[in-house]
Design goal:
The chain has helices at 16-25, 41-45, 54-60, 71-79, 102-114, 128-133, 144-155, 169-197, 202-210, 217-227, 237-249, 255-271, 279-287; strands spanning 7-10, 30-33, 49-50, 63-66, 93-96, 118-121, 124-125, 136-141, 158-165. The chain has 288 residues and is α/β, with parallel strands linked by helices. It has 2 domains: 7-166, NAD(P)-binding Rossmann-like Domain (Rossmann fold); 172-287, N-(1-d-carboxylethyl)-l-norvaline Dehydrogenase, domain 2 (Orthogonal Bundle). β1 (7-10), α1 and β2 (30-33) form a beta-alpha-beta unit. It is elongated, with a radius of gyration of 20 Å.
């Protein structure tokens, strides 16, 4: 596909806005829809058009990208009043970049196929900064020919686009990666809390970690957030909790994953709208 392809974008949150802007930078005509109309304005100012319904996005686009929160939102977008599948149009490519269950992807794919359209699950690894820079890692579940058709569009938003299997495979890989993300967040939080209890400064500890073999980009970013007492959400704690629930529903049952799942579930009520690394506050509170 070339950048003459018309792209519809549904879901303009922290990630959706910069992702849609990357498509505009790549020269694609972009049509946006979001329930909160104020969030459309940034993308419209960058050159996008807007519309009043998901059905209209489907009518006017060759490819539709969705970036929303959960299974319920996806079902509503596809099957609700004025949903994607209400217009009698065919040969559209619908790319669901949300982190949802493999099951809901397979169900939506079946609905798309019966209506003569194509479904792709393509969740992303990376946060707002990576979305702003077009440096997301994108894992794709789709048939090979469908993947080949949409890969250039995905490439406008990411540094790596990899097909990992048929429908639902992208979602499965994303849940596996986010399980590791949760474990890393909890591990960093526990390490800092333990060192602080022994009188070690967080700053000194992080300098040593970040210059050692166990230093990571994630650790540097979240360590800096802890140092600055900045828990504004790049990726909310409630969203990682949701992903851990989805992974558990798939059968995830291992010691570290179960521990992280329990910790984040307990923290969600108090810290759910803060960043994932707010788990450090929950764990510290539990130790007092």
């Amino acid at each position: 596909m070339t950048n003459t392809v018309k792209v519809g974008f549904i879901g303009l949150g922290n990630m959706g806005i910069p992702m849609a802007c990357q498509l505009l930078k790549a020269g694609y005509p972009v049509l946006v829809y979001n329930r909160n109309k104020n969030k459309e304005e940034t993308v419209v100012a960058a050159g996008a058009d807007k519309t009043s319904s998901t059905a209209d996005v489907m009518k006017r686009s060759d490819v539709v990208i969705i970036m929303v929160t959960d299974d319920a939102a996806i079902i509503e977008i596809f099957t609700g009043e004025q949903g994607l599948l209400t217009p009698a149009v065919t040969d559209r490519y619908i790319i669901n970049m949300s982190t949802v269950s493999p099951e809901v992807s397979r169900k939506m794919a079946a609905l798309c196929e019966s209506a003569g359209n194509h479904y792709v699950d393509a969740p992303v690894s990376g946060s707002v900064k990576q979305a702003q820079d077009g440096q997301l890692v994108i894992m794709v579940g789709a048939e090979a020919d469908v993947f080949d058709a949409v890969k250039p569009i995905l490439g406008a938003m990411g540094k790596l686009v990899l097909r990992v299997g048929p429908t639902g495979a992208g979602n499965t890989v994303k849940l596996a990666i986010n399980t590791l993300l949760a474990i890393q967040a909890q591990g960093l939080a526990e390490t800092i809390n333990f060192a602080n209890q022994q009188g070690i400064k967080t700053e000194d500890l992080l300098i040593l970690i970040n210059n050692s073999a166990i230093g990571t980009v994630f650790g540097k970013i979240k360590g800096e957030a802890i140092m600055q007492d900045n828990f504004n959400a790049a990726f909310t704690l409630k969203n990682i909790t949701k992903d851990l629930r989805l992974a558990k529903d798939l059968g995830l049952n291992s010691p570290l994953a179960n521990t992280a799942n329990n910790s984040f579930q307990q923290a969600e009520a108090t810290y759910g709208n803060e960043d994932i690394i707010a788990i450090i506050k929950a764990l510290k509170h539990d130790q007092q």
